[in-house]
Write a structure and sequence with these properties.
Helix 7 runs parallel beside helix 8. The strands form 3 sheets. The protein has a 6-stranded parallel beta sheet with strand order 2-1-5-6-7-13, with helices on one face. It is about 40% helix and about 15% strand. The N terminus is likely disordered. With about 350 residues, it is an alpha/beta fold. It contains 12 helices and 14 strands. The longest helix has 17 residues.
């Protein structure tokens, strides 16, 4: 569910803070605020006293019908199948937890080093109990704002290494890079290139490191010219593939660090009259729906996007209840999905 609108109000204690003070869950505190009757008298008394003690500002009557327990999900974009998988995971987990989700796209950019006031004001106004950030690159001032207002939050696949203590969920990217390279090595390839995403992103550096580790373990000489970066952009991946083909000794296989970039690689190979996998084996990463639509279907590393998002929501619920996770970083396993874009190299 996507909601917009809202007016700016002065910062005050969130419902999550009230719930912690009263020793109850956020949905229970929300029931008291909204006048629901299915709350035990003693529980209602504790919540009411906490509301008064902390100076919680109750919403106007027109907002009282809002379902209990709102959380925000901030995504980089709503235009990709990646975002669709993230939304699916969050929606299912939120439904099980009895929560509603407010979705915002691309609202974490900073202006003059400060968080965007409009979105932050709306977060306060609608009384969201926590936030999930997907592929977000927060500024120090944004982290500070969230901590200052005691709003629980979890990062899903953070772009950069989060500050100490910040809870995040991601995939086993290093192992995914190892698995992709080992699959190509098992087929007999030795000239294996990689087209990675952004140089400084956590996922890119981990996948490249895994690829390099697999080659080193197999005793294969690593060639610097075989490592290219395309910023997760399809057109850039097209250009990087053409550069690889123009090398004096081009690769026989390429590990492309996103299924989206693999589309550009396929186009580059077709432009040169080369066939997959006869002339070039290709392995992707993500296992998005696009990987099955390609011809031939793309062998790829499955990244459990929906499971990552659902895990992040469950961690957020625990934090909203005042419970800290045992560790700050949770990684879910990746695995090879073998289709028809890889084969043995030509003699």
């Amino acid at each position: 569910m996507v909601r917009t609108g809202g007016t700016s109000v002065a910062a005050g204690p969130t419902l999550a803070v009230v719930a912690r003070e009263a020793g109850v869950s956020v949905p229970t505190a929300s029931k008291v605020v909204n006048g629901r009757e299915d709350v035990a008298p003693e529980t209602r008394r504790r919540v009411t006293e906490a509301l008064d003690r902390l100076g919680y500002v109750r919403r106007p009557r027109f907002d009282a019908a809002k379902p209990p327990g709102l959380v925000d999900l901030v995504v980089h974009s709503l235009e990709t199948s990646w975002s669709g998988a993230v939304l699916h995971g969050v929606e299912e987990a939120a439904h099980d937890a009895g929560l509603e989700v407010v979705v915002s796209a691309g609202l974490t950019r900073s202006r003059g080093g400060r968080p965007e006031r409009g979105w932050l004001d709306k977060l306060i106004a609608r009384g969201s109990s926590g936030v999930l950030f997907n592929l977000a690159e927060l500024t120090p001032s944004q982290y500070a704002w969230l901590e200052q207002h005691r709003i629980p939050f979890v990062m899903i696949d953070p772009v950069l290494e989060p500050p100490p203590g910040v809870v995040s969920v991601g995939a086993a990217n290093w192992q995914g890079g190892v698995t992709a390279a080992e699959h190509l090595l098992t087929l007999g390839h030795e000239r294996i290139a990689i087209i990675a995403g952004h140089r400084r992103r956590m996922c890119s550096t981990a996948r490249v490191a895994g690829y390099r580790s697999a080659l080193a373990s197999a005793g294969i000489r690593q060639r610097p010219e075989y490592v290219r970066y395309a910023g997760l952009d399809e057109a850039e991946a097209h250009h990087r593939m053409l550069e690889l083909l123009d090398l004096p000794e081009p690769p026989t296989a390429v590990f492309v660090c996103s299924d989206r970039m693999a589309l550009g690689v396929y186009e580059a190979l077709a432009a040169r009259g080369l066939r997959v996998p006869d002339d070039m084996s290709v392995v992707g990463f993500d296992d998005l729906p696009e990987s099955r639509w390609l011809a031939p279907a793309l062998t790829t590393i499955r990244q459990p996007l929906s499971e990552m998002s659902a895990t992040a929501l469950r961690l957020l619920v625990r934090m909203m209840d005042g419970k800290r996770p045992e560790g700050t970083r949770t990684e879910l396993s990746t695995r090879l999905v073998q289709r028809t874009s890889t084969g043995r190299p030509r003699d």
